[in-house]
Structure formats: structure tokens, C-alpha cells
Here is the input.
Amino acid sequence: MIHAIIIEDEQSSMEYLVSILKRKHKDIKILGWASNVNDAVTLIETERPDIVFLDIQLNDGNGFQVLDELKDQMTFEVIFTTGFLDYKEKAMDYFAFYYLNKPVQETEIKKVLDMYSLKHSSFDMRKYEALKKQIQNKNKVITVFEKNEYKRIKTSDVLYCEASGNYTLVHTNQHKNFLISKNLKKVETMIENDDFYRIHRSFLVNLEHVKKISQKGMVIMSNDSEISISARNRKKVLEFLKSYGVSEP
Here is the structure.
């Protein structure tokens, strides 16, 4: 039996989630419900659940405040619920946290709970701290995991990102490269910065670090790296680069 708590500021949303869980997931027992930060912290400390369904927006604050209060007691897994299609969801997807979009769909709940059943994991505090910093520094940093720790790279220090299968290689102006276990499309979505432009299916460049276009039609970066432009969208890419102030030979 999986013991769960629901932290949700709208009673109708809470009741809807409970009805789905009771109808479709007989192995889950709901231990209680809270709608604000203080009650949520008290309920979790008292009941010690396996899973917490946590709304991001609460009556008196947000779900992150609940987790911050429970830093030393994180023996449970968190499934975020949110009605906002915004950067927070992109960040949670990037860091591979469980989350559900409102209105919650039965198929999505099943998928998330099936993943939990396979892993029986508990909340990762290091990953959570990295997530929070990523959200707080929207468009200004990108977080990578290296040598068993999370590191933040300023997007202004990123020269370009290069696709490498299901991974992405981040090249920086610090003469150091970082490998991210996300594909380039996901990294592009997370950066969400107007200074970054996809000039090729395999390359996302920081326009602030583009020096010029070579006679061969290659993009020359500030570290003198040469990057190919997509053949299919060559004219469009060249026009955009020129409008941004990038010079041709």
C-alpha cells in the first residue's frame, strides 16, 4: 500500500484527484489534505507519507516553501501538480521530476505512479536545490551534473550547444565543455533566451559570441570555432544573422 498526502489549495481539484486515485489506483491510501504551507508541513511531519502530491501555488505561498521547511525529513517522493504551462514545468521536465498538469488526466497519473512503483524513490534534495536555482535564475543559467554535483553555468558564458545523440555538449568561453544528459531540443527549451539561435539541427549558438560568417558560409564563433549552417534553412539563417548584426566577408 502506498500512503499519500495531497497539498492543494482548491478543494475541487483535491476532490477530483482523490476520486481518480480511489477509482483507478486501489493500492494508494490518502492520509490527508492541506491547502497552506504550515498545515502541509505539519501533516507531512505527522503522517510520514510515501508520496506527496504538491501544488506549486498555495493559499499562503508555494510548494517550494513546504519542501524548504522539510529539508531534513525528505523520505518521501514528490509529484508536483500545476495549472501553469510555464518555465517551472520546463524546469521540472529538464530535471526529470514527476509532475502533473491540471486538469489532471488519468493516463498521466498512471504513468507517473508506474514510474514511482518501479523506482520507489525519495525526493532528491540536491536535484531540488539545483531546480530552484534554475527557476530563480530563469534564462540566466543552465545547470549541469558533473563529478557527482550540480553546477550552474551562466548562459552568457555559453558559446554554443552541440547535439550528441541523446546528449548535449555545452561549449563555454572558459575553455571547458560540459556534457548534459538531455537532447539539444530539451536544452534549447530550457535556455529560452533570445540570444540563442538554432542555426543547424545539431547546433544552438549564442549570438553574442558569433564573430562573423566566413567566405565558406560557416559561422565563426568568438573562440574561432567554425559551425555549419543548416543547408535546408541556409537563406533564412543567414538573413537572421545579418539582421542581428553578424557580418559577412
The two ends are 68 Å apart (CA to CA). The CA atoms of residues 167 and 181 lie 5 Å apart. The first strand starts at residue 2 and ends at 7. The chain has a mean pLDDT of 90.
